[in-house]
Amino acid sequence: MTLIVRKKMIALFALFLTVIFGFGFLVSNAVHVDSSSPLSITIVIDAGHGGMDGGSVGKNGTIESNLNLKFAQKLTKYLTDFGISVVNTRSDNNGLYEELTDDFKLVDMKKRAEIINNSGAQILISIHMNEFSSSSENGAQVFFEQDDTDSEKLANSIRDMLVANFENARKLTLAGDYYILNNTSPIGVIVECGFLSNPQEEANLNNEEYQNKMCYSIYCGIINYLGVANNY
After folding, report:
1. How large is the average pLDDT for residues 194-200?
2. Spatial separation of the C-alpha atoms in residues 226 and 232, rounded to whole Å
3. Residue 71 lies in a domain
4. Residue 191 and residue 189: Cα distance in Å, rounded?
5. Residue 93 and residue 143: Cα distance in Å, rounded?
6. How many domains does the chain have?
7. Which of 89, 22, 83, 48 is nearest to 223 (CA)?
8. Coil, strand or helix: which one is 106?
9. What b-and-e string marks burial along 150-178, b requiring 16 or more CB atoms within 10 Å of the CB?
């Protein structure tokens, strides 16, 4: 498959997504391509936290790091089925540090950055779950790297798909001063899939159908961005 053909395929699928999501319609199955002709795109999926760093804990005991991994695995499947190469920063519930020290979180973040920067990837998606002191807060939201227009465009593309499929998805993407975005080379965003501090959203985030819908929406946002950007 030539690069021109790849670009046309991505652009056509992006147009397809724009039309179907413009009518608020979610496709139930991902589009597949011949796996013998992979796209020349690599995406890093970063499942946030892990090991001793469980991240947020829901009102009913859900551990963020476990959910992050589930979402990352589902998103990985959608992308690889489309013919995109994926690198995962972690594939199990362990952290990315060899021993527990006072600075294990920093060691973990540096290891993630090393994996990402050595991957040759063009895009980074970091998966997280949110929390807030008020249990009423809810909705997925996307954060982009400060002063990075490409990161903002990717965030907005994912946001558009989330808003089309989830009534409570946040329409505002925000710039963030995050280590994982500031210290890595790919165009990156952080997707906060929902608030574990909200009991109803915590239940939704643990529902497999809801997980599939969320991950498919993120996937569609990525593909739409690739078609619009036409960089790869």
Report:
1. 97
2. 7
3. yes
4. 6
5. 24
6. 1
7. 83
8. helix
9. bbbbbbbbbbbbbbbbbebbbeebeebeb
